[in-house]
Design goal:
Elements (H helix, E strand, L loop, with lengths): L1 E6 L11 H9 L2 E3 L5 E3 L51 E7 L1 E3 L1 E2 L14 E6 L2 E3 L8 E4 L3 E7 L2 E3 L23 E4 L3 E7 L4 E3 L17 E12 L10 E17 L3 E20 L74 E4 L2 E4 L6 E2 L5
Parallel strand pairs: 4-7, 5-8, 6-9, 7-10, 8-11, 9-12, 10-13, 11-14, 12-18, 13-19, 14-20
Antiparallel strand pairs: 1-4, 2-3, 15-17, 16-17
Length: 377
């Protein structure tokens, strides 16, 4: 993180103060750009008078010659103007962000209580602002302000939406992407100036978790056994049902004396048919794969693909089939786009807006390369 403050001024810390110099610094002033250059900004080349040099405190004035600011408090507003009052006076106020900042809070920067005053103020975004949570805006402003320009040369990237079923995300649905920039103010003349190399991108939504695989079909087991015994068949084993009985050959004889020993049958072998039938369960379907991570600050160029589903478990035998592999998780959405849906019960996370809030205008180079996602024009 690197944030610096600079000003058009302070002027006249010492030395002579001339009307010609005041005209140059306050009427014909050009404002700086982030590259170190300058550009014309609401100026004119007309002559200047003492009445022009009174400090203007009207917040509706968009281009005050001598603006109201903390640094200009000594400059008279209606009478008793003295050139000495311009010691350490300023025309514009600049704050420049460079490097990388997460959840950059613009209104808490060192504005020296100038936000609600009519001095033209410039917030240069030269570096990168991002967020790792879709519930947090990457760069935000929420304060009363007048004549404030957010001059974006760098990148403001919304957070990636997490895929459904991943840590910190909903169990099924993908998480929505994060808003890149939020500006809300009850002041006036607030502008977001988009430069040609800027990137203000809403985060992509996470993909939905894949559906569980279908369960396998059940099977039916069939087992048969026979019991036998002389004179009577034993009962069926546990879990078996008796379905039929029959008799077989002689199993026990005796001797009957008549005209000698006559062998007679005293008992016959008995048989019992026993049958066991039961159903088996099919295998459980595999878990669906997690949804893919959306495009965002933490995933500028990585994969958006969802994870593959798990394999199903095996069936319980006797013709039961295994559970099907779980569905692959839905892909995460590209910048400001929704994550993909699957056949599960939820949905992919929604894509985020580029700029949310109210009471601002968006100007500059606005195209599919500089702004991705909706904004309030």
């Amino acid at each position: 993180m690197s944030v610096s403050v600079s000003k058009a001024g302070p002027y006249y810390a010492s030395g002579e103060i001339k009307f010609s110099s005041l005209r140059s610094n306050f009427r014909a002033q050009q404002r700086k750009t982030t590259s170190g250059g300058s550009e014309t900004f609401n100026t004119d080349n007309a002559a200047i008078s003492a009445s022009d040099l009174l400090r203007n405190t009207d917040t509706a004035e968009q281009n005050p010659i001598v603006p109201d600011s903390t640094e200009n408090n000594n400059v008279a507003t209606s009478n008793n103007l003295k050139l000495s009052q311009f010691r350490n006076s300023v025309k514009y106020y600049y704050i420049t962000q460079s490097g990388t900042d997460e959840n950059f809070d613009i209104d808490t920067q060192n504005w020296n209580t100038n936000l609600a005053k009519n001095i033209n103020k410039f917030m240069f975004i030269d570096g990168t602002c991002g967020s790792n949570s879709s519930s947090s805006v990457s760069a935000s402003f929420n304060a009363i302000a007048y004549n404030l320009i957010f001059d974006v040369y760098g990148s403001i990237l919304g957070a990636s939406g997490k895929g459904g079923g991943t840590s910190g995300a909903p169990a099924v649905s993908g998480e929505a992407g994060g808003t890149a920039m939020s500006v809300s103010s009850s002041g006036g003349n607030i502008e977001i100036l988009v430069r040609s190399g800027a990137r203000i991108y809403g985060g992509g939504g996470g993909g939905e978790k894949g559906a569980q695989g279908a369960n396998g079909s059940g099977g039916q087991c069939y087992n048969e056994t026979t019991t036998s015994g002389c004179g009577g068949a034993p009962g069926c084993p546990g879990g078996y049902n008796s379905v039929s009985e029959w008799s077989g050959g002689c199993c026990l004889t005796y001797c009957e004396w008549c005209w000698g020993c006559c062998v007679r049958c005293s008992n016959y072998t008995k048989y019992r048919r026993c049958v066991q039938q039961y159903n088996t369960s099919g295998g459980t379907g595999g878990a669906g794969g997690a949804g893919g991570l959306g495009r965002g600050y933490s995933n500028e160029s990585g994969s958006l693909a969802g994870s593959g589903g798990s394999g199903g478990s095996g069936g319980g035998g006797c013709g039961a089939t295994s559970g099907a592999t779980g569905e692959t998780g839905g892909s995460g959405g590209d910048w400001a786009s929704s994550g993909s849906n699957t056949n599960n019960s939820g949905n992919g996370g929604g894509g985020a807006v580029a700029i949310s809030g109210s009471n601002y205008s968006v100007t500059g180079t606005i195209n599919s390369s500089t702004v991705k996602g909706a904004y309030n024009p």
